[in-house]
Automatic annotation (TrEMBL):
Annotated protein name in UniProt: CoA-binding domain-containing protein
Organism the protein comes from: Xylaria flabelliformis
SMART domains: CoA_binding
Domain CoA-binding: residue ranges: 112-201
PANTHER family hit by this protein: SUCCINYL-COA LIGASE SUBUNIT ALPHA (PTHR11117), SYNTHETASE SUBUNIT ALPHA, PUTATIVE (AFU_ORTHOLOGUE AFUA_1G10830)-RELATED (PTHR11117:SF6)
InterPro entries: CoA-bd, NAD(P)-bd_dom_sf, SUCC_ACL_C, Succinyl-CoA_synth-like
Gene3D superfamilies: ATP-grasp fold, B domain, NAD(P)-binding Rossmann-like Domain, Succinyl-CoA synthetase domains
Length: 748
């Protein structure tokens, strides 16, 4: 409890009395009212009581469970709960994930905006679609109300719903500013499986959630920023995967983000999420799928950022060694051509100091025996070939051929970290706030920390950073005697997020930095700097405070900060309404005008450079979903082309968003062709098609456009493109579409 009291004070900025009242009222620092400031959201959710009599309104499904969905007043933050039986999945119950994940049954909790917002209809359609598909949903919760809604049982509290309906899982669909409290409430209620779909949940809220999860063994979190979990065999969906793409089959997948289709049919697809600190890892998913009897082959989808793929590779090596007939595994890692120091769409798609590059991950997975592909569309033929006993080969299989030189490093394991990916000059980007050197120094000086002009101290120094250990979901201090973060000299020290900085062992950190541990002045100065950085990290919700320390025998203090690169989580302001002072420090004058111009539309646009040998980046890319966008850029490079940009329209793209995307892409004079690659989940294929046509007509476009639409409403989208009468090229196959885009771009 003491730890949570400290957490609340640091993250929420409340005084001691308010802190204790919150903890007392909501147990383990459950929620904060400023997260609930927006009251335009209502909740929709579900639960099931196996002993209850199924409502007659649902008897037509033939299932033995009842279903329900109801609205709840978000101002009181009481969500709807719902339970979904999954398995059936494979007829035998399984409970093998730590945190009591039960593959036999899922409980879905869905939330949606007010109908006037335009999002509620989509969320409702998603819920109805899941029920019609065969997902078992029952009961709901509404504060102060007990009865029925739509002929289904409604209970007044989540706790009572847990007691009576005994739900097994929850899918949280609320917006980011509400998701923290919803997740914490589910943990308090001890819901076994919690699936969080929302993106942009404040990072430090997630750190606190992970601290809560470590104190219990009842709940398992999947996400945040997860597309969900789906079982085509058990007809259960918790998430927004496009149902037309899923049919019972032999393949299962565990993915950092993307939904996908393979053509072989699927058993279970687990989206662990693209958050910086996902609750469930790729390794966790692999363990489940390896034991699942109906799964014959596994697709693994990873991306740049963190070490989850390295840990997965280590597990795969051991699995293949100990298992007589290991299941074939194919893998992809997005971000081979990612821009160093940039966040590529997903909150977690970037490398922190000491983390591996995308190419490191590819090599580790390949060394572990995985067949590497460069686009999700290739999983089907590759895994089919492996199941048939053949060695997969051909275009897009193996190590990607065009990889930036900065990413080539030796293969490493989770116990031997690669060279630091420290980037000293980072461009501002969405989903993070990087301060200029002068702004960072001013922030340090206001806190009484010593700084010195780096120009007066040539080279050298010691690397000291406060950041995150994604493997342990904990904040950490990184120390190295080399400012370049040499992997032999770099070490990470985890610390308790709620602990006081004074409790840290400074002498051990000093030793790792190569400082004189017997010099009291040095130790005293280091303690002050570490304490100040740790406090700043928590109070201002940073994700990276990277510094270069220098020593001087002739100056006082003996230790000072000569360089500072500070990154802060802008979701704290965007979703939580916090850290306005940090937000105000952002200097957009040093940013790319085109990239900044589309932020307000939810578009992530990153301009990419030309090739090393004068190869012009001339293909504009428009993709929904950060993972797929990275894969598209990488696959175009492997096919002999070069993308001019990375563009993620976001998961809730509209026709107008598509038009805005075309506008920003066309501002780049290098673009000679635009490749639209859409995989519909929440994003509808027909809506994207209308957006393409709207843009083509309104913008008087002259560059050719290649369109590939798969997923939700794909046939309608393809029909709209084909019948438009415009010079648009519609494709179903990715390879054919990419080939055409390269041909058109080089012809212009």
């Amino acid at each position: 409890m003491t730890r949570y009291l400290s957490c609340i004070k640091k993250v929420k900025g409340v005084n001691e009395d308010e802190c204790r009242n919150l903890a007392k009222s909501y147990l383990a620092c459950r929620m904060d009212r400023n997260l609930m400031a927006k009251d335009d959201f209502k909740n929709l959710g579900f639960a099931e009581d196996p002993s209850a009599t199924p409502p007659t309104s649902n008897s037509k499904t033939g299932n033995t469970s009842s279903y329900a969905w109801v609205f709840a007043d978000q101002r009181y933050h009481v969500s709807l709960t719902a339970r979904i039986l999954v398995i059936d999945l494979h007829s035998t119950p399984t409970s093998r994930w730590t945190g009591a994940l039960n593959l036999r049954a899922f409980k879905l909790k869905t939330s949606l905006k007010d109908e006037l917002s335009g999002i509620g209809k989509q969320a409702t359609a998603n819920a109805k679609e899941s029920i019609e598909w065969g997902t078992n949903i029952v009961g709901g919760v509404r504060p102060g109300f007990e009865g029925e809604h739509l002929g289904l049982p409604v209970l007044p509290t989540v706790r009572k719903a847990m007691e009576v309906l005994k739900p097994d899982a929850t899918g949280i669909y609320v917006a980011a500013h509400q998701a923290t409290a919803a997740i914490e409430e589910a943990i308090e209620a001890e819901v076994p499986l919690i699936v969080a779909v929302a993106e942009h949940i404040p990072l430090h809220d997630m750190i606190r959630i992970h601290a809560m999860l470590k104190t219990q063994n009842k709940s398992r979190l999947v996400g945040a920023n997860s597309p969900g979990i789906i079982s085509a065999v058990g007809k259960c969906r918790i998430g927004f995967q496009p149902l037309p793409c899923f049919k019972p089959g032999r393949l299962s997948s565990v993915a950092a983000a993307s939904t996908l289709r393979s053509g072989l049919g699927q058993t279970i697809c687990i989206g662990v999420g693209g958050d910086i600190l996902p609750g469930t890892t790729l390794k966790d998913g692999l363990q489940i799928l390896a034991e699942d009897k109906a799964t014959e082959a596994i697709a693994l989808v990873g991306e740049i950022g963190g070490e989850a793929e390295i840990e997965a590779a280590d597990w795969i090596k051991e699995y293949r060694t100990k298992t007589e007939k290991p299941k074939p595994i194919s893998a992809i890692v997005g971000g081979i051509n990612a821009v160093p120091g940039r966040i590529m769409g997903h909150a977690g798609a970037f490398a922190l100091p000491g983390e591996p590059s995308a190419q490191d991950k590819v090599e580790a997975l390949q060394a572990a025996g995985c067949a590497i592909v460069n686009h999700p569309a290739r999983f089907g033929p590759v895994l089919k070939s492996m199941l048939d006993g053949s060695t997969p080969s051909g275009y897009g299989v193996g190590s990607p051929s065009k990889i930036a030189s900065f990413q080539r490093r030796e293969i490493h394991t989770a116990t031997r970290r690669p060279a630091s990916s420290v980037i000293m000059n980072c461009t501002q980007q969405t989903r993070s706030i990087y301060l200029t050197q002068s702004a960072a120094f001013e922030l340090l000086q206001r806190r009484g920390l010593p700084v010195v002009d780096s120009a007066s101290i040539p080279g050298g120094g010691h690397l000291l950073a406060v950041t995150l250990n994604r493997s342990t979901s904990s904040p950490c201090i990184i120390a190295s005697s080399s400012v370049n973060g040499d992997d032999q000299k770099l070490r990470s020290f985890d610390y308790d997020y709620g602990a006081e900085a004074e409790d840290l062992d400074i002498s051990v950190i000093a030793s790792q930095l190569g400082l004189d541990g017997d010099n009291n002045d040095i130790i005293s100065s280091l303690r002050a700097i570490v304490t100040g950085l740790v406090t700043l990290f928590a109070e201002k919700e940073a994700y990276l405070l990277e510094t270069r320390l220098v020593t001087s025998k002739d100056a006082s203090p003996n230790l000072a900060i000569a360089f500072a690169r500070f990154g802060f989580d802008d979701a704290a302001h965007r979703s939580g309404g916090r850290q306005a002072d940090i937000q105000a420090l952002r200097d957009t004058s040093v940013e790319d005008v085109a990239e900044v111009s589309v932020e307000k539309d939810g578009i992530v646009y990153v301009k990419l450079s030309d090739g090393n040998e004068g190869e012009i980046a001339n293909i504009g890319t428009l993709v929904n979903g950060a993972g797929l966008a990275m894969n598209t850029v990488d696959a175009i490079a492997d096919a002999g082309g070069r993308a001019a940009n990375f563009l993620d329209t976001g998961g809730k793209a509209t026709s107008e968003t598509v038009k805005k995307s075309f506008e920003v892409i066309l501002k780049d004079p290098r673009v000679k062709c635009i490749f639209v690659n859409i995989f519909g989940g929440l994003t509808l294929g027909d809506m994207i098609a209308r957006g393409v046509i709207l843009a083509f007509r309104d913008l008087d476009m002259s560059v050719p456009v290649v369109v590939r639409i798969r997923g939700t409403n794909e046939k309608e989208g393809q029909r709209i493109i084909t019948e438009s009468g415009l010079p648009l090229f519609a494709f179903d196959d990715f390879d054919e579409a990419a080939k055409k885009a390269i041909e058109l771009a080089n012809k212009s």
